[in-house]
TrEMBL record:
<keyword id="KW-0808">Transferase</keyword>
<dbReference type="InterPro" id="IPR015421">
    <property type="entry name" value="PyrdxlP-dep_Trfase_major"/>
</dbReference>
<dbReference type="InterPro" id="IPR015424">
    <property type="entry name" value="PyrdxlP-dep_Trfase"/>
</dbReference>
<feature type="modified residue" description="N6-(pyridoxal phosphate)lysine">
    <location>
        <position position="182"/>
    </location>
</feature>
<protein>
    <submittedName>
        <fullName>DegT/DnrJ/EryC1/StrS family aminotransferase</fullName>
    </submittedName>
</protein>
<comment type="similarity">
    <text>Belongs to the DegT/DnrJ/EryC1 family.</text>
</comment>
<feature type="active site" description="Proton acceptor">
    <location>
        <position position="182"/>
    </location>
</feature>
<keyword id="KW-0663">Pyridoxal phosphate</keyword>
<dbReference type="GO" id="GO:0030170">
    <property type="term" value="F:pyridoxal phosphate binding"/>
</dbReference>
<dbReference type="Pfam" id="PF01041">
    <property type="entry name" value="DegT_DnrJ_EryC1"/>
</dbReference>
<keyword id="KW-0032">Aminotransferase</keyword>
<dbReference type="InterPro" id="IPR000653">
    <property type="entry name" value="DegT/StrS_aminotransferase"/>
</dbReference>
<dbReference type="GO" id="GO:0008483">
    <property type="term" value="F:transaminase activity"/>
</dbReference>
<dbReference type="GO" id="GO:0000271">
    <property type="term" value="P:polysaccharide biosynthetic process"/>
</dbReference>
Length: 361
């Protein structure tokens, strides 16, 4: 048995091969080919959004978002996230200003944001943790009040809707990851969702070294392009998103049933959310119970993951270390249990039994 925390969904091979045949016929592998353009168009249609730019991964999407918005100085962010949220800020020469999280939703604590704002603050960049929407109304209210740009890291949020709109419809820019571990993937990939045709146009140049056309270099750029083969995987997988989310919901509900009444906490999903069931995190009462659970799972060939550990405010290379007690507490005790399509009921029951035994001592 080898059960990992996630496993990529693979579409029917025949469908992918049909796209590969078209790629072979055109002999166009990259550089904004027809598959990439079709994929972007299909994404816009699927999400009911107007301006989307497909790039090579979710991290470069964050970096491009910071660059296109000309973000300088301090950027308010959450310490409870994947490292890319913070590293993108640092990579672009900005300073992350950590703000602690809510203990229930695991998203940034909006009541603490204003006290962290200084005259050097230029943006708020926060993730929708495990696909659970941040308090977007409050964050955007703060952004308007202090004239701050807002970037949402939606790496885990594909398929989540809030107030009957895609969660990517909020903020100045929303970024997406299409990494193979995500419920919807293109093997590697990412995207930026923006609010104007002009920003979309500029991002298309920036992802292609700054070229506006074959010869005209109109500004600073980088190589953030993605290939026809990756776009083809995305086109295939778009057919299956609804079924993928329904399957993950089924697995989540089985975990819920098995673990009901135990002294663990689960993430509170924001009201008004159509959730995507991207992960199944549980918060243990003590760190040693979590560690025992992990060791017992590994003996059985099961590999849950400590998302997210450590709390990013504790990174050794940060110039400014901020005390974030809630994030630090959660990071020590949270564990994501395996969650992916075709995970069998018997395996979910086995994992649940290990958790139950750990909690009962």
């Amino acid at each position: 048995m080898n059960i990992t925390v996630s496993k990529p969904f693979l579409p029917p091979l025949e469908r992918y091969l049909s796209y590969l045949k078209l790629i072979w016929e055109k002999e166009w592998l990259t550089n904004n080919g027809p598959m990439v353009r079709e994929f972007e168009a299909r994404l816009k249609e699927y999400l009911n959004l107007d301006y989307i730019v497909y790039v090579s991964n979710g991290t470069i999407a964050l970096q491009l978002a910071l660059k296109i918005l000309n973000i300088k100085g301090e950027v308010i962010t959450s310490p409870f996230s994947f490292i890319a949220t913070t590293s993108a800020i640092l990579w672009e020469g900005c300073e992350p200003q950590m703000v602690d999280i809510f203990s229930d939703t695991l998203n940034i604590n909006t009541s603490l944001i204003e006290e962290a704002i200084t005259d050097r603050t230029s943006a708020i960049l926060v993730p929708h943790i495990f696909g659970n929407p941040c308090d977007v109304q409050k964050i955007e209210e703060i952004g308007k009040k202090y004239r701050l740009k807002i970037i949402y890291d939606g790496a885990q949020a594909f398929g989540t809707y809030y107030d009957n709109r895609s969660i990517f419809a909020y903020g100045d820019i929303a970024t997406i990851s299409f990494h193979a571990t995500k419920l919807f993937h293109t093997v590697e990939g990412g995207a930026l969702v923006v609010r104007s045709k002009e920003i979309e146009r500029k991002l298309r140049m920036m992802r292609n070294f700054g070229f506006a056309d074959e010869y005209a270099i109109c500004g600073l750029g980088i190589n953030a392009k993605n290939s026809e083969l990756h776009a083809a995987m995305g086109l295939c997988n778009l057919f299956h998103v609804k079924d993928i989310i329904n399957e993950r919901k089924r697995i989540s509900e089985r975990y819920d049933k098995n673990l009901e009444g135990l002294p663990i906490k689960k993430q509170k999903i924001a009201e008004g959310t159509q959730y995507n069931y991207s992960y199944y995190p549980v918060i243990f009462p003590e760190k040693d119970v979590l560690e025992w659970t992990v060791s017992q799972c590994q003996k059985m060939g099961i590999f849950p993951k400590r998302y997210f550990y450590p709390s990013l405010n504790q990174l050794s290379f940060l110039k400014k270390r901020t005390f974030c007690p809630v994030s630090e507490y959660i990071a020590e005790r949270i564990l994501c249990l395996p969650m992916y399509n075709n995970l069998s009921v018997s395996t979910v029951d086995l994992i649940s039994e290990i958790v139950i035994n750990a909690l009962r001592g």
